[in-house]
Write a structure and sequence with these properties.
CATH topology: ADP-ribosylglycohydrolase fold
CATH class: Mainly Alpha
Shape: globular
Helix content: 55-70%
Largest sheet: none
Order of helices and strands: HHHHHHHHHHHHHHHH
Strand content: under 5%
CATH architecture: Orthogonal Bundle
Number of domains: 1
């Protein structure tokens, strides 16, 4: 899950309309690189798994603790409400927070079921669920040691995502898009074309879209595939996290982080 958090922090300076870039050449960390809602909710999902708390309660609790992390309007209203009903979102918020599911569960069926549960507390639209499931399954397959070819084929087959496009084809016309259907496939393609963890992050941001979330998604898969996050990036990421996030990420890593080697 640290790969997702790293992607969020590295992508944060380029988040939001008008701040996107169309190049992979940029400083990884800047003075104003920070964690956003992607990190808060990823940690919330990890906490839910570690403590066997339901996803909705954990997500709402952590969001309320960090209310200025940059949530979308619909999520923010849900966060403040005592009404627990989902709001039929197809946004990529379901995919950005789901990476702990791909590490914690031990079969395809479990991963798909838990990804749906983590999404459906807010993002119960079929596309919202699909984006979470595709991301979690890609993480699961990557940590199982599957090849990029097999990951690509399995995700495309199950979710009907077009993963045959190249980044060079996508980039010129690509614009800010917070939908799962308009950002999750592109994030997966960034991972598929990468040659390292850092390269996956850079390629996702270079598309010029919802940069922190797309880097979060690509980074979550790249961490599992490449066997971790480079140490120099880990140091920079941990400097930017509050103590309780560090405690949860370390506990999660201790319990689930070695499962790629065990598989």
């Amino acid at each position: 899950m640290l790969g997702a958090i790293a992607g969020d922090i590295i992508g944060s300076p380029y988040e939001g309309r008008g701040r996107q870039i169309k190049t992979a050449e940029f400083p990884l960390f800047q003075d104003y690189s920070r964690f956003t809602d992607d990190t808060v909710l990823t940690v919330a999902v990890a906490h839910a798994i570690l403590t066997d708390v339901d996803y909705g309660s954990a997500i709402r609790d952590f969001a309320r603790r960090y209310p200025r992390a940059g949530y979308g309007g619909s999520f923010y209203s849900w966060m403040l409400s005592d009404d627990s009903l989902p709001y039929n979102s197809w946004g990529n918020g379901s995919a950005m927070r789901v990476s702990p599911v791909g590490w914690a569960f031990q079969s395809v069926d479990e991963v798909l079921d838990q990804a749906e549960r983590s999404a459906a507390v807010t993002h119960n639209h079929p596309e919202g669920v699909k984006g979470a499931q595709a991301t979690a399954l890609a993480v699961f397959l990557a940590r199982q040691g599957e090849s990029k070819r097999n990951i690509k084929q399995e995700i495309a087959r199950r979710f009907s995502y077009d993963l045959d496009r190249t980044l060079d084809e996508i980039r010129p016309a690509y614009r800010f898009d917070v939908s799962c259907q308009g950002s999750v496939p592109e994030s997966i393609i960034a991972f598929l074309e990468s040659d390292s963890f850092e390269d996956a992050i850079r390629k996702a941001i270079s598309l010029g879209g919802d940069s922190d979330t797309m880097a979060c998604i690509a980074g979550s898969i790249a961490e599992a595939f490449y066997g971790g996050v480079p140490g120099e990036i880990v140091v920079q990421v941990k400097r930017r996290l509050p103590a309780e996030f560090l405690e949860i990420t370390e506990e999660f890593e201790e319990r689930f982080g070695k499962k790629r080697m065990m598989s």
